[in-house]
Amino acid sequence: MTASEMHIDFGLKYDQVASAKTLKFEREEIDWLLTTAQNRFIQARLKPKVDERTGKTTGGFEIDQLDADAIRTIIVSSYDLVPYIDQDGRRYRCFLPPDYSYLLSDWSYTTLLCPDDPPPTVIKETMYITGLRLEKSQAPSPPYYGNLQISLGGQLVSVPGDLPYFNSYAGYVELQDIAFLRPWLAKQGKWYWEKFDSFNWPYFFLSTTTNNQLNLPPYITIDGFTTTVTKLQSYPVTRHAGTGKYYDNRLSATDNISGMNSTEFVKSAHYSPISELSNGILYVYNDNSFIVSSVGISYVRKAQPISVILDTQCELPEEFHPNIVDLAVELAKGSVGNIPGYQTKVADNDKRVVL
Predict the structure, then answer these.
(1) Of 237, 253, 268, which residue constitutes the final position of a domain?
(2) Element (H, E) at 335
(3) Is residue 74 part of a domain?
(4) Most buried residue, 21, 85, 169, 286, by most Cβ within 10 Å?
(5) How many other C-beta atoms lie within 10 A of the C-beta of residue 173?
């Protein structure tokens, strides 16, 4: 289904249970409900991974074949990460990509160090972070955000220029409706939103790079008003050079790491590195017997928002679109006091994946 067809399907199904009510949903509100239902649908396909030794969740997710097929269009099967040496020298930290949502598996390329080998080669770099604040429109009256352009980190995103060809976009009626655009802008620009590493800059898009040779200065223009409210940060990072050999990581719960690494036959080894997912960073543990030169992950990426105004479609396979509309209708029914719909909404909140 297209976004317009999902709106029609939503209206038909909702009218069957709310024909006597005067409450009607605006297009933006249906977009929001459909996007929420899409995210719930994705979460419901995933099951938290459990540590076989302790029975505790490890931070990653697993998925069976049927559920994997339901979200196959947003699964990234292989993505390379750079493992930077952490300050304590006993682990590496890998920054997850901006569109990362849920981790499915991870692996490392490791090299065993022999006593007679020369010290491994260390590459020194600088991490540059540029933050650009997302502003609200200063237009005197609606429509707002009719024209918007953001330049950050060498990426240029414009509205409506970068929207699909058949969009009917003409701006929004409320200043706070920038919330409908923000996820799409972040996805188009490949930017982080508010958080990266230990930095938390509210209302900022974040661009990160170890190559600071940028051609375009950061700025944002909204309805004719241009601003360059930016934050800059840089700090040194180091990594080990090498090729290494492929081994699957053992993703483990944070409170198990210390005990595992103090046990001889369980600790992190070059043939079975221990990894940890914490605060948006994937850590891989090592010791003085081996190095990690590269890390890879498979993950579920963020799906683009469903919007009939932006003409951005549901990215999941079409055969599952009716399921998403059904869930959106039940969420809407619950919002207006329909008892079965309310029960569905409560059950959905109870059962969905706890992040």
Answers:
(1) 237
(2) helix 321-335
(3) no
(4) 286
(5) 11
pLDDT tens, the chain, 355 aa long: 677 776 777 776 666 555 545 457 788 888 888 998 999 999 999 998 887 767 777 778 889 888 999 999 999 999 999 999 998 889 999 999 999 999 999 999 999 998 888 889 999 999 999 999 999 999 999 999 999 999 999 999 999 999 988 888 899 998 988 988 999 999 999 999 999 999 999 999 999 999 887 778 999 999 999 999 999 999 999 999 989 999 999 999 888 888 888 888 899 999 999 999 988 899 999 988 999 999 999 999 999 999 988 999 999 999 999 999 989 988 887 766 555 554 554 565 445 443 3
Whole-number Å distance between alpha carbons of 204 and 306: 23
Same domain, 138 and 39: no
Under 8 Å CB-to-CB from 233, ≥6 apart: which residues? 128, 129, 131, 199
Residue 283 lies in a domain: no
Contacts of 62 (CB under 8 A, 6+ apart): 46, 47, 48, 49, 104
Structural domain containing residue 314: 3-45+303-351
Task: Please report whether residue 135 resides in a domain.
Answer: yes
Shared domain for 137 and 221, answered yes or no, is yes
Residue 123: inside a domain, yes or no?
no
Give the residue ranges of DSSP H helices in 173-319: 178-189, 257-261
Out of 237, 272, 290, a domain closes at 237
Q: What type of residue sits at position 243?
A: T
| pTM across the whole model | 0.88
Query: How far is CA 131 from its chain centroid?
Result: 18
